Structure formats: structure tokens, C-alpha cells
Amino acid sequence: MELIARNQRLIIGAGPTGLAIARHFTELGVHFAMADTRTDGQLLQAVHALSPNIDCRLGPLDPQWLTTFDEVVVSPGVPPTTPGLAEAEVPKISDIQLFRRAWPTTAPLVAITGSNAKSTVTTLVGDILQAAGRAAVVGGNLGPQALDLLGDAPAEAVAVLELSSFQLARTIQLQADVATVLNMSADHLDWHGSMVNYHRDKHRIFQGVKSIVVNAEDPLSQPLVPDHTPTTRFAVQSPDFHRFGILETPEGPWIACGTERWMPVSTLRMPSRHMLQNTMAACAIVQRLGVGPEAAAHAVAQFEGLSHRMQPVAERRGVLFIDDSKGTNVGASIAAMQSASASSRPLVLLAGGDAKGADASDWAQWARRLCVVVHTYGRDGRALAEAIGQTARVHSDLATAFAAAVADATPGSTVLLSPACASLDQYPNYMARGRHFIALVEALA
Asked: 250 Cβ partners below 8 Å, 6+ apart?
């Protein structure tokens, strides 16, 4: 077997991230090869559309071949336990490590992660910067790919990146100007192996950080950084010095930092608890970048939220249907239940899919407390139902569960899709699951 590499870099993964890495290396004139454990010929077509000369190997990874490269750049979807990759003793980095190398040290970098809400906060930070007249490029885990942002970045632009735990696991010394872990709850334990590893990988975001934003209500989100690190906190509590919170005034509640008022809570189109947290986090981040309340209030007033994230779909037969297909872990689903139940409408929950090895016991307690009935489905639907008990019903798929939920929902109640699970057992992604739910709702008309 030929083991002498003609290329100095290897890209593992020929999906969107791998192709972005390939484009980046091509622009830099770096020699590279590609590999993917999948054998789908369409992957090879996508790679060769960039250049027919790219050496791309599909199928099981050969650890000896991997060690002939100076560095291996691994796409986030490739688990560390992948045969061949796990055995290869060679530096393994992420696309974010490449971005850090390429991003000017004089230009601000904002890094955002968390078990939940990171896409919403990342998008909102970008909107606020735009409202303030600041140049910004926004992407990462939510898209566009981080490396694809480099070509569009004006001088001195702010890079605002949503980062997944998969990306951070292979990233060191990010040296962000502002970094935050918005919250921490069990997720992707099948990938990371344990909650300890998941927590460690998330907190890599703080390596070399210049300032931080911290959720004061979530101890697991608070980093071990030097005491002198500039810090802003947020909590759905009374505001305090260097802490965003809710200030009660004769005119109504305001989001404020200390005594500085930023905006009335009524500015938010969806003033639920989780959106209050998201808005305060975004305000704290932009405050660290020198942006004030006026731009933040303007952007928040225009912000309609992201698709499949606590998105009201329609009201049919007196029943409100809410799409939270992005609730792919137990923490997100708990927040969704809390938000939906705040209206005091009886709540019917749809949940199920691939639980990714998470402990559902806390989620089940909240489901028993807040839901009239829970209809589960998919690969881990039975396990979820057993954790809840007698108020749960098990179904094979979402369509069947939906029909049962509609039958149980009385006028004035809410049917919430917040699966607490990934979608890949029955759908290509959470967006496809959400679109299916929307189609089921629309069919009721």
C-alpha cells in the first residue's frame, strides 16, 4: 500500500464543512487530500466539482495513511471514536482552528456556544451590530461555514461565530475577544462519552479569552478564568453592577444593566423567559464591544426569532400549535415547556427521536409537572415515555403521535413539538422534522 503522502494536510469529512476547508486550502495554495468514511458517490462528485485533481478516498480510514500527514482537519460530524481516526497519532484540529489562524488578531472575534439558544443569540448579536453600523460576519455552526466568511469580511469587521461542542473539542487557544457558554445541559453524550467531557470541550471556548459573558443562573456555564477577566453576567432577576437583569419600573419591566436601562421588556416580540435570557446575553456581548442600548433596542424590536425555535405555526380549532423542532436536547425541551406553559394554556407535548445518550429524568419531571399528556415517538420514544409514566403515550412516528395529540387537545390548549432528541432516526435534520410538523398542522385546515 502506498503510504507516502504527497499532501501535507488531510481533510476528514466531505460534507459542507469539509468542502469549506477545501476551498480555504485551495485559496491558500495548500496541498491537501480528503477522506470520508461514507461511500456515497455524490460526495466524490462534490469534491471533484472543486477540482478533479483532489485525492479523495471514501470508506474506512487507514490509521497508517493518516499518520503520513502533518495535520488532519476533522469535520465536526466525525466522532473521535471513528475507527482509524482514534488510533492515528497525528495532530487533529477543527475548521475553527484554521479560522483562528486566518482571522486578523486586530479584528474582534465573538465566540458563542451553549447547549441551547446559541443560534438565536449569535443571530441577534449580528443584528445588533448591524443596527449600530458595525461591520460583522456571522456564521459557524449555524452557517455559513466559518471559513467561508473570510473572503467577505471587511477590514476590522467583527466575526460572530456560533460554535458547537464538536468544533470546540478540536480547538485550542481560540483567544476570543468575547466568549460565552450560554447554558449547559446534557447533550451529545454519545459523541463526547460523558458529561465531564462535554463540559470540558464546551469550555475550551474560554482559552485565551479577553472578556466573558456568563449566565448567572447556570453554574455549569461559569468558566475557570483569571479573576481579573472582564465579565458581564445576565439573569432573569434584578439587575446588579455588571449584570443584566429585569428592572421593575412604574412604566413596566425593563432589561437593564445595573441602573442603565436598555429596553422595555415589551420591546421583545416573544417576551418569554428564554427570550429574555437570549436578549440579555446578546446585549451583554455587544456591550463588551462598545455598542449601547439604542442599537440593541432597535434590533430586538425587529427580531422575529429563528425557524423551528418556539415558532407559533397556527391556531386550529382553538388549539395553538408551536414548532420547536430545534429543541434537540432535554435542556432545550425543558425551556420550551416552561415557556409554552407560562400562558396557563393546557399543554400537550410531542417528543421523541434519538436521545443521544442523555439522562431524561429531569426532563421527565418537568413533563409530568407541565403537560397534560406527552406523545412520544421514534427510536427513543418508549424510553422517554417510561421515564414520564402514566401521562405518556408511545407511537411509531411523528404523524401518528400528532394525530393522537390533536385528539387530546381541547380548545384553548397548546400542542408543542419540542422533541428533546435529535431527528436523525427518522429525518435528515431537525428542519425537515419541523417542516413535517408544519405540514401536519396546515393539513388540519
From this structure: none
| Alpha carbons 290 and 285: distance in angstroms, whole number | 9
**324-364 pLDDT, tens digit each:** 999 999 988 998 999 898 888 999 999 999 998 888 999 99
Identify the residue whose cell numbers are 486566518: 102
Is residue 175 within 8 Å of residue 207, measured between CB atoms?
yes
All three cell numbers of 210: 479577553
**Active-site position among 24, 92, 116, 188:** 188
Active-site annotation holds for 210: no
Give the tens place of pLDDT for each residue, 78-110.
999 999 998 988 999 999 999 999 999 999 999
- Alpha helix segments (H runs only) across 289-409: 293-302, 330-341, 361-370, 381-388, 398-408
CATH 3.90.190.20 is the classification of domain 311-443: yes
pTM of the shown model: 0.86
Q: Which residue out of 24, 92, 116, 118 is catalytically annotated?
A: 118
> Residue 141, by phi and psi: left (phi above 0), alpha (psi -120 to 50) or beta?
alpha
Parallel, antiparallel or unpaired: strands 260-264 and 252-257: antiparallel
End-to-end CA distance of the chain: 62
DSSP state of 207: T
Phi, psi of 292 (to 5 degrees): -105, -170
Q: Pick the catalytic residue from 116, 141, 183, 215.
A: 141
Neighbours of 327 (CB within 10 A): 26
- Domain boundary assignment for the chain: 9-93, 97-302, 311-443
380 in Cβ contact with 356 (< 8 Å): no
Assigned CATH topology for domain 97-302: UDP-N-acetylmuramoyl-L-alanine:D-glutamate ligase (3.40.1190)
Asked about 326 being catalytic, the answer comes back as no
Q: How would you class 407 by CB atoms within 10 Å of its CB: exposed for 0-12, middle for 13-18, buried for 19 or more?
A: exposed
Which is nearest to 241 in space by CA: 231, 226, 227? 231
In CATH, what number does 9-93 get?
Answer: 3.40.50.720
Closest CA to 284 of 256, 265, 306: 256
Does 274 qualify as catalytic in the annotation?
no
Query: Phi/psi of residue 92, each to 5°?
Result: -120, 120
Locate cell 439522562: which residue? 359
Q: Is the omega angle on the peptide bond into residue 144 within 30 degrees of 0, that is, cis?
A: yes
